[in-house]
Amino acid sequence: MARNNNKALVPEAREALDRFKMEAASEVGVTLKQGYNGDLTSRQAGSVGGQMVKKMVQAYENGLK
Predict the structure, then answer these.
(1) Coil, helix or strand for 40?
(2) Residue 10's pLDDT is what?
(3) CA 48, CA 64: separation in Å to the nearest integer?
(4) Rounded to whole angstroms, how far apart are CA atoms 15 and 30?
């Protein structure tokens, strides 16, 4: 039985996460639409996710300084 783990722990954060995703996508040259983006290639989706992680790590490291 599959569980839906795509639930935000803080539902109010959904908009901020969507803006963050759009920003990361534009930085790597991937065009996202509002809503479903299942037509992206694995490479495009990975680029967006990788950019998001990179930015989160940078933000964390800057917070440690």
Answers:
(1) coil
(2) 85
(3) 25
(4) 19
